Amino acid sequence: MKVATSKWTILIANILVPISILVFSSGFFPYKTLLPGFATHEHISNGQIPPGVFDKVVFMVVDALRSDFVYSQHSGFIFTQSLIRSGAALPFTAYASAPTVTMPRLKAITTGSVPSFLDVILNIAEADTSSTLMHQDTWLAQLKAKGGKLVMYGDDTWLKLFPGMFRRADGTTSFFVSDFTEVDNNVTRHIPNELLQDDWSAFIMHYLGLDHIGHKAGPNSPYMITKQHEMDSVVSMVYTALEQEKHLETTLFVLCGDHGMNDAGNHGGSSVGETSPALLFISPKFQQLETRKDSPTEEFSDLQYYHTVEQTDITPTLAGLLGLPIPLNSLGVFIPELLAMWDYGPHRIHMLLENSKQLLEAVKGSFPSYSFEFNLMPAICSSQSLTDIERVQCAWFRVHEILNGSVVDYDSEASSDIESALLLFLRSAQRLMSSAASDYKLIRLYVGLSVAGFAISLTIFPVKRLLVNFTPAGMFLGFSILGYSTMMFASSYVEEEQQYWYWITMGWVIYLHVKYAGYFQGNSIHKSSPVEGYWSSVLSLPRFGAAALAVSYRVLRRWNQTGQKFAAQPDITGSFFPSHQHTLWALVILTYADTCVHLLLDLPASVLWCFISCVVTLAAFLFKLSLTASDSPELLGNSFLQPVAMVSDGMHLLYHARIVLCGIFLLMIYSLYAGKAHESTHKDRGTPSTIFHETLTLFLLMQSRVTNIPAFLIFRVQITILASMRLSTVEQTITSLLMQYVTFYAFGGSNAISSVDLSNAYNGIGTYSVVIVGALTFISNWAAPIWWVSASRLLRSSQNQEEKEAHVTILTLHMATMLMSVMAACTTLRTHLFIWTVFSPKYLYTMAWAIINHIVVNVLGEIDWRFFMER
Amino acid sequence: MSSTPPSPSLAQGPAPPKSAPPIHVLPNNISKTYALIHPVLLLALVALRFDALVTDPVAELLSNLPFLALLQVTFVMTCLPPAGSAKDDDDNNKSTSANSTSNSTSNAGSGVILKPGKIGLRRKNTPKSDSGNLSAKLLPAILSLTLTTLLATPVLTILLILFGAPLTTHHAETLLCAAHMAVLTSTALIYVHGVDGSIWKEVWGAKRPADAVWGAALGTCVGAWFGAVPIPLDWDRPWQAFPITILIGAYIGYSVGFGLGRTVLFGKRLKIEEEGDVVDSKKVD
Fold this sequence. Notes:
Number of strands of chain B: 0
Family (chain A): Belongs to the PIGG/PIGN/PIGO family. PIGG subfamily.
GO cellular component, one term (chain A): endoplasmic reticulum membrane
Largest interface: A-B, 64 and 39 residues
GO molecular function (chain A): CP2 mannose-ethanolamine phosphotransferase activity
InterPro entries (chain A): Alkaline_phosphatase_core_sf, Phosphodiest/P_Trfase, PIG-G_N, PIGG/GPI7, PIGG/GPI7_C
Strand order of the largest sheet of chain A: 4-3-5-1-6-7-2-8
Radius of gyration of chain A: 31 Å
Distance between the termini of chain A: 32 Å
Strand content of chain A: 5-15%
Low-confidence stretches of chain A: 125-130, 519-539, 679-686
Helix content of chain A: 55-70%
Structural class of chain B: mainly alpha
Helix content of chain B: 55-70%
Structural class of chain A: mainly alpha
Function (chain A): Ethanolamine phosphate transferase involved in glycosylphosphatidylinositol-anchor biosynthesis. Transfers ethanolamine phosphate to the GPI second mannose.
Oligomer: heterodimer
Shape of chain A: globular
Largest sheet of chain A: 8 strands, mixed
């Protein structure tokens, strides 16, 4: 196989990849047109402004408070449920649209607008301050403009969104996911004091503990119910104060979740669990409405308890109840149940009318070409098929008609007519505005696409011979790339991408089987070539190697269920290990021992080396043990390691992690220094191994979830089998590629933002730093692909320069094609319903695959750094 | 096993080991006609029972299995030479004595293992018994069906699970799906090849030259592989449940492989050489 290529082609193609990503991203991630300025009451004739029912608000956000956490029979919110029964609390399910992560949701709650997808990235790159809501119209800004003071305790996202807005504040960072108690105690300790103060108009609390429990242990963990009881006691404390304190008599208490969580305890996507947080308006005053509801209610599988409203509805409702103008960019609809707070009919109508006029302005802002003047009542309204904007127009004309027709006497019948017409308009306008296509800069999308296309064309010519001549491996590669590219246009295949890799990899195993098993059988007479050393013991491996590979893939496939459709089904990490803790820990110990033995074998001569590597391995294992003991103790349970964990628990996790990292770093340095001389003598052992690879393994073990650690044993078996097969260059590359993707998904990765695993992103870090946390997050999510890049590099250690270049060229071609197909899918499907929930996250993942996994890990990893060091 | 990793030089070197030639459909009119009808019949069976299959896969697969077996037995008896007689039909012009020796030498294995004492098999070796003797064909047919049930079904079950069929649930579905695939693939293979070890090694290594029998068997497996493709789609149709698409794929694959194996690809082998040597498939004869 000759891949005629040059360093320059590879270099240029790999520079083009990030350029195309940059250009495409700048056109793809849109910004919404926002109306500048702040709303005022001016445009309403004064007499009819509905007076505020409340003048203060206690706004309590419980992160990831899914509706069933409050409303179901298994809830810990006993007191809150008694409030619902008494009518003092009005319960709702608030639909939170994707992206269901905290910052965009807070924007939705405070501004009433639907946030752009860009906010997800900004949510992760938390340090960013460009996305503040300082200059946007929010109910907080309105309160402040009215002269109110605001206080805030809890998630410091609020402080970043509203710098300088709060009189008193104490922020807690939301990124130390393993902390269940401190984050919340830090909020609760301020409550008694604040409830005694009468200077604030808004008292905001944001509890993070429940979300952290979800991320760490899932919605069914034993911690969850305890945490719910704790939150319930906070509700009880506040409600008691509302009843008893004179200055809190006209205070509204809002309890809500910013988003929900899925069955794995994660969020970010658009599954029903993630989009269904609870929302309660609580005040002793509501009892007079006599809207008593049953509570707890029976379980709903779709989590839509009581009446479902939009999360953005919170904004106009709050504004209305507090007597504030509705923020300009709000897309919310005043929640009709709460209209009953005004006994006087015209107040209710004016509330809705004000809401309608505000929303109409927002609609006009986005659709300047449509007229809402009454004089041209169009005939289209009678037609059956209306576009969304036409439906809004017609609803508005209908409102106009009724308003003009009825004299302003607002008798009960006319007023209910007007109310329903207004609500119809509000709902249709809300639907229109929430789904309004964002502004794409199409030119940039096409430029990004063509740059990616150019990168493909650069790399495809060298590989052309391979593909055009129909070598089976080349055909397989072509088939795989084509299949993948086609798949990117179907949302379910994007969600279930792992299925594709499992499927195509089994095809590859059959290829290897046909090639190698058959080969040996056919040529068994011609076994004259030298049989050296180790090979005699693994001679049977190629024969049954493919079968063994197939079995190992089958195990990996069930290691973690991922994707959307089958995510909740039982798997090894989620169902088997928690109930077989001894097996888990025996395997984990075996993995560490195996790594240690490899370390020792790589440099057997030195006693010092043996000692150091044993100590570092032991320390790394103990770190994992105590991390598990503190994060997910249910995995430790009553296993035999419980006593060990108790002992090692004495050391602070932070320092423990740093010690292990230092140890691993030392080993790496030493391996670079001393390993060079030894490496050549160990070529012929079965499993390829160098000190660098082994220390890297140790590091990757540290960054992997404990349940994923035993999978590294399977990788060892696989790499041994693959080594015995002596694959050709193209086959090596294909195997490396397939293994990277298969293991990424087998470790629980997917194309959903919610599957990003943050549990190991803070190992050894004391303060938040975007770069380090980002790097650790990448490493812990891509641990298995990184291992395979390193391992397959060892497999290919005998390759010459030309073959290495061929390897990189094929990798680059593969990456560029993937990138281009994802970009093409995002471009053509930019008006698709799932663009923000499926395709954009996929694009983000592809960015990580392309820029970090491909360029940094694969391509830069290919460069022989020792070559530079010798210079 | 004592063999060495292949070096590229070996690739071109030795001639491939002597293997049985591809199988022709019997050269009489009834056989040729039925060989055309048979795949259509199978597809019709699936199409006809599709709704029932979706409603209750297990019951339907179970009740269809006898029909499928019957169709396959009819097919092999009508259209294919039973094990050991393949050579007769292949080299028709050779003398009968040469024919019998060739049977007793190169194909001895099959004769011996397939119950050598049986009169039916002995008689089958007599020349020109092509379509007449029913029992000479019924016995191998039933034997092959038995072996299919006993050996091929478990093997295919394991393969299905390796390819991702559920391990802890859907046991009946997996087993029945494997049984259907086994009847599709193995009945004819065993009928024409017996249990000749070297041929089965070729089958295991996917190295058989293409003919109707091998093409259909390979087609069934490849079809089943492609049958898995629609499962992850979020259409939430009842037919996306586990064994259905795979089975449909298998049946379609069977028909396609059957047709291609008889005609376009006849005699070609799936061959994966060292890279550079551009040999996808090559003529054997």
